[in-house]
Amino acid sequence: MIKRPILFSTSMVIELLEGRKSQTRRLTHNKRGNPSVWLCLADAWDAGERDHELWVREGFRKSNDGEIVFRANPSSNDTRGREIGAGSASFWRPSIHLPRAASRLTLVVTDIARERLQNIGDGDAVREGSGAAGVQGFAEVWSSIHGVSAWRSNPTVIALTFEVKRRNIDQH
Questions:
Q1: DSSP state of 35
Q2: Is the pLDDT assigned to residue 79 strictly greater than 50?
Q3: Helix-strand-coil split of the chain, %, nearest 5
Q4: Average pLDDT, integer, range 137-161
Q5: Which of 110, 122, 102, 127 is nearest to 25 (CA)?
Q6: Which residue has the higher pLDDT, 15 or 131?
Q7: Could you list the residue range(s) of the whole structural domain that residue 44 is in?
Q8: Could you give the CA distance from residue 99 to residue 66 in angstroms, rounded to a whole number?
Q9: Are both 53 and 128 inside the same structural domain?
Q10: What is the Cα–Cα distance from 75 to 64, expressed in whole angstroms?
Q11: Pairing relationship of beta strands 2-7 and 52-57 according to DSSP bridges
């Protein structure tokens, strides 16, 4: 079984939690032109290894009593970047820093495909979390993350389809 971390923004974690996101696209190569971990995952899938799980890394902070508080909880959002409350000075930490043991969401991969970015259809755009905005909404989100030229260049991407499980990856 291949188990890897995957980063998501707070808005995308909310989409996962609300059941509106069951797909994500990732670049096949990094900015230096080297194969990404997603390309390696797709290669393993193509070779018949179909048992992949991804543990979601998301923004978080530690409460005064040391408990993990996830940013993608409606009651924990604060535009100033820290929790409002007496004596609370714990700032939000980026998703890259969430330890595996603290992850609360596991994505069980059900399909992996290689495709050109602009080949996405409205159905897949909805599964990406764009809702009624379809491909245009997805294109706007992609451009906001990767830059307008990244959409225009129409790179090859890895499309991951998954089921969301509300559990840590090490719990079965």
A1: B
A2: no
A3: 35, 30, 35
A4: 93
A5: 127
A6: 15
A7: 2-59+94-165
A8: 14
A9: yes
A10: 16
A11: parallel
Helix ranges restricted to H, the chain: 10-17, 37-46, 122-125, 134-146, 148-152
Q: In terms of domains, do 115 and 79 share one?
A: no
Say whether pLDDT at 161 is over 80: yes
Amino acid 80: pLDDT: 43
pLDDT for 132 equals 81
Q: Which residue has the tokens 């009593």?
A: 65
The DSSP bridge pattern shows strands 52-57 and 68-70 to be: unpaired
Nearest to 123 by CA among 113, 110, 114, 132: 132
Confidence of residue 75 (pLDDT cuts 50, 70, 90): low
Written as six digits, the tokens of 59 are 């923004």
The answer to whether 53 and 108 have CB atoms below 8 angstroms apart is yes
Which one, of 28, 50, 1, 35, lies nearest residue 162 by Cα? Answer: 50
Contact 100, 55 (CB under 8 A): yes
- Mean pLDDT value across the chain: 89
